[in-house]
């Protein structure tokens, strides 16, 4: 009986390990994008963090960018903030609750999906957003890749 229990445990452990590897492999490459008409060539991860956490929207060049988020709860949004700001969804909600309560800022505008983000960014030379790399097209310019 003990051998059967050990084999069952081993099989369960293997299934969980494989599932974990599969989940990591489906993670998207996040592209930070601006309008294809923008003169901006690239952004650093720290600049993107400052822009989206609204600690500073002004770049060293003096240019101010307006960030736009995807909907709360979307996988790409969670992945973006984990990669760029090292914050999960709960930490991000707490961050914005504090900022709003103290009058230090409002979160970026939320749009429903990547297509809405692309349309908004493409039509506004001062907007910056993020999408899955696979959704990038000629209407936007990639200024940072988050892997």
The CATH class name reads: Alpha Beta
**Helix content percent band:** 40-55%
Strand fraction band? 15-25%
Topology-level CATH name: D-Maltodextrin-Binding Protein, domain 2
Order of helices and strands: HEHEHHEHEE
Helix count from the secondary structure assignment: 5
Global mean pLDDT: 85
- The helix-and-strand class reads alpha/beta
Keywords: Signal
Organism: Noviherbaspirillum saxi
Protein name: Phosphate ABC transporter substrate-binding protein
Signal peptide: 1-28
Walk me through what this model shows:
Helix content is 44%, strand content 18%. It has five helices and five strands; from the N terminus they run αβαβααβαββ. The protein has helices at 2-25, 45-52, 75-84, 89-101, 114-123; strands at 30-35, 66-70, 109-111, 127-132, 140-146. The chain has a five-stranded mixed beta sheet with strand order 3-2-4-1-5, with helices on both faces. The chain is globular, with a radius of gyration of 19 Å. The termini are far apart.
Keywords:
single chain; 147 residues; alpha/beta; D-Maltodextrin-Binding Protein, domain 2; five-stranded mixed β-sheet; 5 helices; 5 strands; 44% helix
């Amino acid at each position: 009986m003990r051998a059967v229990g050990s084999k069952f445990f081993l099989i369960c452990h293997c299934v969980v390990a494989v599932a974990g590897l599969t989940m990591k492999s489906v993670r998207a490459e996040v592209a930070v994008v601006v309008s294809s008409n923008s003169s901006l060539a690239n952004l650093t991860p720290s600049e993107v963090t400052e822009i989206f956490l609204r600690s500073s929207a002004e770049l060293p060049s003096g240019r101010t960018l307006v960030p736009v988020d995807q909907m709360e709860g979307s996988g790409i949004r969670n992945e973006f903030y984990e990669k760029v700001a090292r914050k999960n969804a709960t930490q991000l909600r707490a961050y914005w609750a504090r900022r709003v309560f103290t009058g230090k800022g409002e979160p970026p505008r939320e749009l429903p999906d990547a297509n809405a983000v692309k349309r908004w960014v493409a039509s506004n030379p001062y907007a910056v957003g993020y999408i899955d790399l696979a959704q990038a097209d000629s209407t936007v310019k990639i200024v940072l890749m988050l892997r």
